[in-house]
Amino acid sequence: MLVVQKFGGSSVADAARVMNVARIVTETYAKGNDVVVVVSAQGDTTDDLIEKAKEINPGASKREMDMLLSAGEQISISLLAMAIEKLGYPVVSLLGWQAGFQTNSKYSAARIKRVNSERISKEIDKKRIVIVAGFQGLNRYDDITTLGRGGSDTSAVAIAASMRADLCQIYTDVEGVYTADPRKIPNAQKLDEITYDEMLELATLGAQVLNNRSVEMAKKYNVELEVISSLTQKPGTKVKEVCKMEKMLIKSVAKDDSVARVSIVGLPDEPGIAFKVFSRVAKAHINVDIILQSVGRDGTKDITFTVPAESGDAAVAALQEYCDQVGAKKILVDTDVAKVSIVGAGMETHEGVASKMFEALMDANINIQMISTSEIKVSVLIDKAEAERAVAAVHAMFFDN
Amino acid sequence: MLVVQKFGGSSVADAARVMNVARIVTETYAKGNDVVVVVSAQGDTTDDLIEKAKEINPGASKREMDMLLSAGEQISISLLAMAIEKLGYPVVSLLGWQAGFQTNSKYSAARIKRVNSERISKEIDKKRIVIVAGFQGLNRYDDITTLGRGGSDTSAVAIAASMRADLCQIYTDVEGVYTADPRKIPNAQKLDEITYDEMLELATLGAQVLNNRSVEMAKKYNVELEVISSLTQKPGTKVKEVCKMEKMLIKSVAKDDSVARVSIVGLPDEPGIAFKVFSRVAKAHINVDIILQSVGRDGTKDITFTVPAESGDAAVAALQEYCDQVGAKKILVDTDVAKVSIVGAGMETHEGVASKMFEALMDANINIQMISTSEIKVSVLIDKAEAERAVAAVHAMFFDN
């Protein structure tokens, strides 16, 4: 069996943790598997390097930032290889370019175009454990690029896809994906399985277990993922195309309290207004989530939408001129809101899932400001102060029996 | 004019020094020169990385050590590039492999086979300042190698040779090559010029201004070197094939007090003994410097030779069995010795240079234990306690007038 294992920066933060990872890897290898390991930079290395750069030039080019930061994984892959050498196993470490990662030229946020896994295959044929630097690749000018946030997850999935690995394990500090945040909801349950689509919705909803790009890629190439803890090594949560547990209506209740609600009051009630508003927001590279449009009593209409909390002011700035021009009454931003969502492929074929959620909120006397639904998700916007109570109420409605 | 400039680890140790280097480089560029800069890892980076490796596996493979340590220059080249960006000049940083450094596969002590400077030329054509990671290259398996001690000097000379640069400046913390160590001999004079051969002898004699491999390569490809201070930027010392100042008999007085004298007493006086002794020493990879053989009164002979101080015990170990076998009386090691040398191409055509040195030592009442001469060098082995006094006396004899 060919297994790809990915370890993040905190898993290799110091010598003891590097040795721990080496043990996990060599145990997998000793069971007769071929193992490719993807590693991020050590926890503090990236921060230290960014600090060094800022001291010299806060406006450094992204090309040189990528050159600098990619040294981080170079350090972690060689240290992990040394730890595995110490345990007496054959091993070789490879940089992104050595492992065949070809990317486009968008420095600091490059996209993987192709993984030429020839070198990795050659090393596996020599019965070596292969350690690959995550987060980095090479563009067509032979310059080093980095993949941006969550890049190492994507690196791992890309290798698994290119080599048709049997399993891609993403090691983290949680034991898997839960029906709700287990630190907040004591009887949250760990899921054995979840579908790609459900995982994608959860990732978008602020449950940052897996990076979205990596789940998208896993779905596209049908790579079986497992989210698993590097500390306990208990079986984690498998992410796959179809799950066996179809009886579960929903998989998880998630909360995102880093949301801003933007309201434009008193827009003229005429065609094309929504386009004019949201094309301006898109131009400012702001992601819009829930949208609500209502007609006011005085022949004007209001548009309300949510954006990431940090983009609230930027959204207002992008719209101010237009609103003045068409005589809108005002633009309001409110960051005292939170989004609570339920996710589950089961709701596609079962009516009443959304109303069950609304019932739970009503019972808890929590007011719903906005509602958004997709085939496998229902989100509501509520007062931020009520968010945790809302999650508990909804979770109890679906999972306590 | 194409200028290659090399800066060592202490020259880029912190943000302020990186900015200082950026100023030197951009001033050279602003005068209309094409500039290629070779940089070592920041002062403390290499030590930190070695520390990290030791904590995990003191017996790590050299292949992985090279992978680890080469991250050091990756950090320093990108930081220097950022500093130059800050000053508003076009710049690009290149790793050893990007700059075309092809080496053999001797990890941690690789030899440069070829520099394919195509990429550097292309960047220079774009009017960019090119920053190259010293000390590192790529072997034919596409694996990263490091060049070992003083490797960055060699990297700089190799680029200068491959691109037929007009000048290769080695920036250091001294102002050039002196007639003696200026910290010890107050009236030591800075030399304007010195020949490759003289520089090679000086390097071997412990005056570690330039790495020997780099001088050898400079001589082979006739690269004009300049040793120059990164702090004062005053004209330094040029190293070239022929010097104008032929009137100077000797160029410098050097001292090496990290020497061991090994003596084998009472060897049989028969043919082949020297071969049998020194082949064993060579097999143990120990460099022998001065050799003295004398016939004892009892029909036996004694062989005395010098080796680096740290190799004294290894030399004894390599010889013990043989000496027991042939019935030698004893092997002695003495590290209380020092080698004082004069170097100068002028002595080739002038008699009496050696005797002038001996005269100075006699006047100072210093006993000579061993003597060794070459065309451009005279070395004497003396008591370590007398070494500084010897250098002062010899320097005064040749340079005070």
Outline the secondary-structure elements.
The structure is a homodimer of 401-residue chains.
Chain A: E1 2-7, H1 15-30, E2 34-39, H2 43-56, H3 62-86, E3 91-94, E4 101-103, E5 112-115, H4 118-125, E6 129-133, E7 136-138, E8 144-146, H5 151-162, E9 167-172, E10 193-195, H6 196-204, H7 212-221, E11 225-229, E12 237-240, E13 252-268, H8 273-283, E14 291-295, E15 300-308, H9 312-326, E16 330-343, H10 353-363, E17 370-374, E18 377-383, H11 387-399
Parallel strand pairs in A: 1-2, 1-9, 2-6, 3-6, 9-11, 10-12
Antiparallel strand pairs in A: 4-5, 7-8, 11-12, 13-15, 13-16, 14-15, 16-18, 17-18
Description of the molecule:
- Two copies of one chain form a homodimer.
- Chain A has 401 residues and is α/β, with parallel strands linked by helices.
- The first copy, chain A, folds into two domains: 2-172, Acetylglutamate kinase-like (Carbamate kinase, 3-Layer(aba) Sandwich), CATH 3.40.1160; 253-399, VC0802-like.
- Chain A has eleven helices and 18 strands.
- Chain A has helices spanning 15-30, 43-56, 62-86, 118-125, 151-162, 196-204, 212-221, 273-283, 312-326, 353-363, 387-399; strands at 2-7, 34-39, 91-94, 101-103, 112-115, 129-133, 136-138, 144-146, 167-172, 193-195, 225-229, 237-240, 252-268, 291-295, 300-308, 330-343, 370-374, 377-383.
- In chain A, strands 3-6-2-1-9-11-12-10 form an eight-stranded mixed sheet, sandwiched between helices. Chain A has a six-stranded antiparallel sheet with strand order 14-15-13-16-18-17. In chain A, strands 4-5 form a two-stranded antiparallel sheet.
- In chain A, helix 1 (15-30) packs across helix 3 (62-86), helix 5 (151-162) packs parallel to helix 7 and helix 8 (273-283) runs antiparallel to helix 9 (312-326).
